[in-house]
Amino acid sequence: MAVNRVDVTADAAGLLRRLAGRHGPLMFHQSGGCCDGSSPMCYPAGEFRTGNADVRLGDLRVDGVGEPIPVWMSASQFEYWKHTHLTIDVVPGRGSGFSLEAPEGVRFLIRSRLLTDQELAELDGHKERPVPAGEG
Amino acid sequence: MATYAAPGDSGSVVAFRPRYDHFIGGEYVPPAGGEYFANPTPVTGATFTEVARGTAEDVDRAVRAAEGAAVAWGRTSPAERAEVLNKIADRIEQNLEAIAVAESWENGKPVRETLAADIPLAIDHFRYFAGAIRAQEGGISQLDADTVAYHFHEPLGVVGQIIPWNFPILMATWKLAPALAAGNAVVLKPAEQTPASIHVLLELIADLIPAGVLNVVNGFGVEAGKPLAQHSGIRKVAFTGETTTGRLIMQYASENIVPVTLELGGKSPNIFFADVADARDAFYDKAQEGFAMFALNQGEVCTCPSRALIQSSIYSSFLADAVERVKKIKQGNPLDTDTMIGAQASNDQLEKILSYIDIGKKEGAKILTGGERVDLGGDLSGGYYVQPTVFEGDNKMRIFQEEIFGPVVSVTRFDDYDDAIKVANDTLYGLGAGVWSRDGNTAYRAGRDIQAGRVWTNCYHAYPAHAAFGGYKQSGIGRENHKMMLDHYQQTKNILVSYSQNAQGFF
Predict the structure, then answer these.
(1) Which residue of A9, B153, B197, B388 has the fewest C-beta atoms within 10 A of its own C-beta?
(2) Which positions are catalytic residues (chain B) (predicted)?
(3) Which residue of A has its CA nearest to B401?
């Protein structure tokens, strides 16, 4: 399997299948700051306008969901996060913001680990590198 | 000291209703969709009430009610509006204990904080804006001998306010008081994690406010917050939260060309210069307390001093003393007046904090104390408790760069003044900061060089009205807590008058 920056747990994939069935194509934007900062926000694709200030970390391919689900983060935040691999998980909770899953009584959550030197080397010179909006 | 009886138990000073509807047009109305959501207390994890699950239909009804009330309210005299705000403050003061216990039960924070800080600050905040609106002046500019520009303040109309869950009543007050003082009608959406305590307050003050001037619609962000932020009848949106939702709210506001104020958090540095340790005196003790302030409100404060920067020459001894101080923080039942740190506000918040402690360890940061979830036993076993945690690491680590919003401080050292400022400003955010020094010049220079809207100098976590609060950089737009917030809730009307009898001479 190719090296990636972002992945999804089986539980989160199941939730994404349900959300995609209800809302159509989806996207993530990783938040920062207080309250529900650090949470990945899930929206209908195109609901959140990405731009030059964002990078796309990758696309989640979830069985049973037709469209890949892009995961975005602000470019400035990525500078501080780029050495870590992210896995989108889901936990019981009552998230805030306008993320789609909150009414389900669950919340997407980021789990992180360090990227290995080998992974970083591969990602650095590779097409999987985050693509600034407009180029992707 | 004392432990308050839990709401719902006999002897409690406050009782929640089993269900809360929306408050629209001066009365409680059920949600259009007929649905309610369960509201648990983070103290035990048990549900204690249910709350209306608002939708676009409810928001629209609330905006229409607000529109119906806005014109008359906007025409009341400042003296009348100030009287309403003062009466609200008095009513809260008369019921302080009940509201404080309700807030503790709702949010999980220690009742000693709600008794001594949250609710007294809310009371004072209403009084401050009651005074500020009466003292506000318009402007008269004499442009030449015959021409005068008059500047009047006028309310915006109907404003939308989306409230965070970390200080449910105080943050609502920070937004409500200036909006109402300025003559606006409000549609307010509390956080879905903490939707109920505001209704305890509302029931106490509802008779003081003309119908429709204040409307509260509960619900989830995507179902109720979003339609509020997008509603074409809203003339301004105020939001406290995080950056992605902040950007989305700006995006929605751009569709209607309305202004926003945003408070989006921070990663506040707390800087201890070497001279702090020149003596082991009261000031040293105060600085030590300043370090431990990261645990206030379980760290769920946008300005949590979650990065401690200690000068190298005192690093080891100051930090050792500080860790001992942190170990003495008493964790327990939030309704016990001795408890210093209570429960995190929700399960997902607890999980997020634990995930940050995990990545902190993986990045090589060292835990000096804490780092674990706490099981307090009995009913409290179901609650969301985390040990106050001190990490030692490097400013490039994720735990130094993102607001964990938990009782977690990340500590690093600096060599000299320039180094301190460089590390302090190496962040995306700029909301709060702390500077500790016995040297006034050092403290002053640091205060000016740090890119943050609030620099506490030889103090921390004080939130008095009449001191502006808001962010630089990605921490947001606007200033709360000060009369300048009135400007964020007012239009400027300029009437330009010529007193000359003569034509201008163009035609």
Answers:
(1) A9
(2) 263
(3) A80
Q: Check whether A3 has a pLDDT greater than 50.
A: yes
Nearest by CB: A32 against B301, B302, B428 = B428
Distance CA A101, CA A89 (A): 12
Confirm whether B505 is domain-assigned.
no
Check if the beta carbon of residue A108 is closer than 8 Å to that of residue A95.
yes
Catalytic center residues of B: 263
Does the structure show a pLDDT above 70 at A127? no
- Indicate the number of domains in chain B: 2
CB-neighbour burial class of residue B163 (10 A; exposed 0-12, middle 13-18, buried 19+): buried
Structure ipTM = 0.95
Q: Are residues B450 and B363 in the same domain?
A: yes
Q: Which residue numbers of A have CB closer than 8 Å to B's CBs?
A: 29-39, 41, 43, 47-49, 74, 76-77, 80-81, 84, 91-100, 102-103, 107, 109-114
CATH code at B251? Answer: 3.40.605.10
In this structure, the answer to whether residues B233 and B291 fall within a common structural domain is no
CA separation for the pair B156, B484 (Å, rounded): 15
Task: Give the pLDDT band of residue A136 (cuts 50, 70, 90).
Answer: very low
Secondary structure element (H or E) that encloses residue B419, with its range? helix B417-425
Question: Is residue B466 assigned to a domain?
Answer: no
Q: Which domain holds residue A28?
A: 6-127
The nearest CA of chain B is from the CA of A82 a distance in Å of 10
Question: Which three-class secondary structure state does DSSP give residue B235?
Answer: coil
Give me the CATH number covering residue A121: 2.60.300
Establish if A10 belongs to a structural domain. Answer: yes
**Same-domain status, B260 and B286:** no
Between B221, B362, B403, which is nearest A33 by CB?
B403
The H or E element containing residue B198 is helix B197-205
Q: What is the spatial distance between Cα B25 and Cα A120, in angstroms, rounded to a whole number? A: 58
